[in-house]
Amino acid sequence: MRAGGYAGQVLYIDLTKEEIKKEPLDLDMARKFLGGFGLNCKFAWDLLDPTVDPYSPDNMIFMGMGPMVGTAAPASNKHSVMSKWPSTGTISPGTAGGDFGINVKLSGYDEVIIKGKAKKPVYIKINGDDVQICDASDLWGKDTYETTDMLWEKHGRHYSVIAMGTAGERLVNTTICLIDKCTSWGKGGLPAIMGSKNLKAFVAHGNKGIRVADPKRLIERTRMIQQRFESYPDRQKLLDLGTMDGFVFWADIHGMSMNNWTSRFPTEEAYRLYNTDYYLENINAGRISDPTCPMGCKDHVKVKKGEYTGTEAWVSSFYGRVVHMAARCQVGSYEKNVKAQEVFQRTGLCIHSYTALIDWAVELYERGILTKKDTGGVELKHDFETTMYLAEQADKHEGLGGILSQGYKKAIQDIGRGCERYAVHVKGMEPLYDPRINRLSSAEFNQVVNPRGAHAPQGASTLYMSKDADPKGYRDWLEDRGVPKEALKRIFPRSGYFNIARLCSYAEDWVAFMNSVGMGCLRGRVDNFFKGEDWSEAYSAVTGFETSLAELKTAIRRCYNLYKALNVRVGFSRKDDVFPDRWFEPLETIDRGTMVLCDYFGTPLSREDCEKLLDDYYDERGWDIQTGIPSEETLMEIDLQDVFRDLQKRGFME
Amino acid sequence: MEEKALVLHPERCTGCHACEMICSLVHDSECNLSLSRIGIMKTNGGGTNENIPVVCQQCHDPICADVCVMGAISRDEETGALVVNEDLCVGCKTCVIACPLGGVLYHYIKGCAMKCDLCGGDPECVKSCLYDAIEFLPMDEWGIKTRLKGAENLGRIFEIVYK
Ligand code: SF4
Ligand code: SF4
Ligand code: SF4
């Protein structure tokens, strides 16, 4: 029987040798590591030297599209990229929706692996069996919009395009690629890795078709899921607002810290500058959906009046990006906010990462650690002008902006002068959520333990709930997603309390799972309408491998442990899972009094308490409490004997 | 037989491809944008107002059937859909060229013409489009809806002119 879902081939591209190879996908391996994120981990484990310099031709880019990607099942679109990132030195994933993944699958590939370095600028064209390394000399120097337009002009709009901007050409680390001008991919420096390989872009279109083992069963399940979305009374509101449906949470309930984690963006100011009516009337120009997503949330935004009329961007999580520009950079009006976003999107600067570095730099300037000598004579402030100035420098990789744009790890070395005291990061990546405002929930905690660095979404999933929400919601969700009874007992040892650290590991697994099979989305607006059994049903219907949720969950535990092991081999361990100092300082706010780090129930947490939570987290994962490294027992249990032996041989465990 | 057709609303289409995935799945047991009878043509970033869904409108006086010398395209009296008789079709593609809407395509695996058959009267794409960008309507109702849209447009113009 030919399996459904899996396209069946792995595509290897060596840019140095100008060699393209196709090999059949090992289906036993695929079932063990699912696909997408999971298979990326497996290939990276087998092929990537953990000590590799991220810019070296030997660094590799792994692109994985799980078995559900490109099928009719709802929200089947997530594809995952893995590499050794230059900003953090971690080997970790990035996730995207968009049309690229489905077109690679439709071309016949589950996995694309790139290594080497081209002699001159190139892009990769994937069109079914026809895979080519093409000349990109005319694209070099072009921003993401221009590159994408030129490639569409050449190949047709039915191709999906991954483009890096100008910053990536100059090996700027705090950058992302754009898929079809919109979806961002590869935070942590995918463009810089591509830049080091002289690789400007990818285009893909395929028409091979993805086989579905049992169409009737898939259609039945699809209709069932779609029904749940359709019958939701507030559906239209969610569609109209996109991710901006979270605005009130940000403005009022959760909030976002500002002035480099020393105060909170005032609620009144948020309503004045960025209220939703204004957004609907003057900013939003259209809604974009990822493939088969029933709750499309991406934004087409266009400034309709004033100085920046015509400024245009297509963005995923528009809400998050507005918030960063608003709170970290304090750019002011909605129009300026969108203008700044357009500049970042065009050059390929990562709005999540680079705004945090700007925020930090302004504090360093205010403290006199940075002076006009460093800034090129410019006074640094939290405002639009500073943001644009530092963005321009970052894009050119020159001056202070150039230093900042390499990420915390390198910038701390380059600036020196005790600047690290004010740098809020974990493993070189900026956190997103402030647990003093939101309390230490799953997403906040994950920022500390995530092997990638402080990247919240991995632990967020639908579990990202308001601090006032009933914890029962967590319990129901965990039960539905097949978390075993014994684990539930550990997470909820008594009524009125739960252990966020223990819980976090299951949230992480779930997101990793969705990104492996390529179905589902961590946003509550999508995940809330799914049930755990949807995945086992859809996966079985598509692939023809009858697989239970419990089996799928074992597979994802295997993948996540392998992910951790990949980074253990790089040298990461418990010493790197550090709660930032600033989280233990009180947060003085204008409108909410003083806020301190609290658990979900509002009990203040000291560093010692947090260390205890870390113990719990490693314990729940079956990792050594002292080192944070997966134990022999755990690795054996999930059939990773070879991983254990490798770690042992390299001296990471006894 | 009541005359019914798929009514498309490009301004609501988010480009999610759900219609194409289900259409190809239902007809060819695989998911394949290129084998879908409905096609989403994207422009620019691919959001609402930037995408154009294209599908056969089951013409009252069908050009595709007229140009087919094999007589392979005929109307299904029950559903009103113009359907391809794959046994008669020789794959000459005259109908593909002749259709002004891009409603007829070439099935590159089967080697014959391929077009929307209204799924035997119960269009699957309509059910999969959760953005209401495809409706299955009798023509009289479509007429009323079209007028309503026109009225809305006029209303907006009046608002601009008089306010
Ligand atoms: S909700 Fe998730 S899958 Fe749907 S469009 Fe948004 S990001 Fe994509
Ligand atoms: S009605 Fe059926 S055949 Fe026609 S486009 Fe829709 S899904 Fe395809
Ligand atoms: S299902 Fe609807 S919204 Fe999605 S691409 Fe098709 S017509 Fe557009």
Ordered list of secondary-structure elements with their pairings:
The complex is a heterodimer of chains A (654) and B (163).
Chain A: E1 9-14, E2 19-24, H1 27-33, H2 36-47, E3 61-65, E4 79-84, E5 91-96, H3 100-107, E6 111-115, E7 122-127, E8 130-135, H4 144-155, E9 160-163, H5 166-169, E10 177-179, E11 183-185, H6 190-196, E12 199-204, E13 210-211, H7 215-230, H8 235-241, H9 247-253, E14 257-258, E15 263-264, H10 267-274, H11 276-283, E16 284-288, E17 298-302, E18 312-315, H12 318-328, H13 334-347, H14 351-366, H15 372-375, H16 384-396, H17 399-404, H18 408-415, H19 435-438, H20 442-449, H21 457-460, H22 472-480, H23 485-491, H24 500-517, H25 524-527, H26 532-543, H27 549-570, E19 587-588, E20 594-595, H28 607-621, H29 632-637, H30 641-649
Parallel strand pairs in A: 1-6, 7-12
Antiparallel strand pairs in A: 1-2, 3-4, 3-6, 4-5, 7-8, 9-10, 9-12, 10-11, 14-15, 16-17, 17-18, 19-20
Helix pairs in contact in A: 2-24, 2-27, 7-26, 9-10, 12-13, 12-14, 13-16, 20-24, 23-24, 24-27, 24-28
Chain B: E1 4-8, H1 18-28, E2 30-31, E3 39-42, E4 51-54, H2 63-67, E5 73-75, E6 82-84, H3 94-98, E7 104-107, E8 112-115, H4 124-128, E9 134-138, H5 139-162
Antiparallel strand pairs in B: 1-9, 3-4, 5-6, 7-8
